[in-house]
């Protein structure tokens, strides 16, 4: 076979065979297919798409390009969760220990943030001493011992996906369903869980901007999971505004702790309890949302989170400390009315400029900086009332503050929001 022939075949709208996809992906992982040819192939997929069978073959070829984690030593149904990304998304920090508090093993490998999207690993690393790199044996033993672990992905897993994702990021081929679905599901399948919950975000702060694309991505990934014997459900969730009240690594840890203590906002608490109910159902444990919430109120979920942090080297005293920044800048409402929009993308980019996110993968983070919102969409506000606080280690210019205020849309209508838009199973 020749790579150029496969590029041309896909460019002209034809399906590749299973052998052709396997040959191309294994060659790319081994280095015989260069970046420039794989970039051309990715662009051909961008414009021509892939059939369901091609996407499945691509996914499994990427799984085969690295090691697979064997979780069979852990008893019970192992569950995992993945989000397609967003702003202020601290859901895993609460959801993993909450589900584990019911005796269901949660063995999760997470990623870092890039651009306006935050990464779970970055948030956990804002806790002094927390180790995201552990051996496979340590990972398995921790889940056996306390029921939960959240770590970074092994360098030996899905090698082809790592290479291809980095290439897509710089060739404008990130936001295409076959490549998103195969990237997500190759990692989830290789990570070894028995059941997978997929959080497919949609809206201004997500990869998927409209419900039709989100639905197609969700359905594709659910089918990929089921095809290899993994119980898989997707939820389509709103990412038009940030999740919860905070954006920023340390700030999101603190908000997660509030929710784990049963003191979080009602909307985000209800959302996470609904997700936990679905994850528990995947493990054949049927609970009501109220029964799930009880584990936030009685401290069970918080205890499990503390156990995980301590097991992975985290300092429990540091866990609860306040942020350390030189500037806390209040943002005041410019008019009275109702918050009609808090554009997730704009505020994610604003937080990135504060140092809370990365423009490129090599950027360092300021774990302390970010934004806390005191008002969310649908809530009433009076002119001059504090609607947010900016946490920064550099001066916030008048121009930055003005731009922030412009992105807070205030109108005369109380907009109703709903976190879970649809369930795909």
Automatic annotation (TrEMBL):
Homodimer. This is Pyrimidine-nucleoside phosphorylase. Residues 338-411 form the Pyrimidine nucleoside phosphorylase C-terminal domain. Its EC number is 2.4.2.2. One of its GO terms (cellular component) is cytosol. SMART domains: PYNP_C. Catalyzes phosphorolysis of the pyrimidine nucleosides uridine, thymidine and 2'-deoxyuridine with the formation of the corresponding pyrimidine base and ribose-1-phosphate. Its cofactor is K(+). It comes from Streptococcus cuniculi. Keywords: Glycosyltransferase, Metal-binding, Transferase. One of its GO terms (molecular function) is thymidine phosphorylase activity.
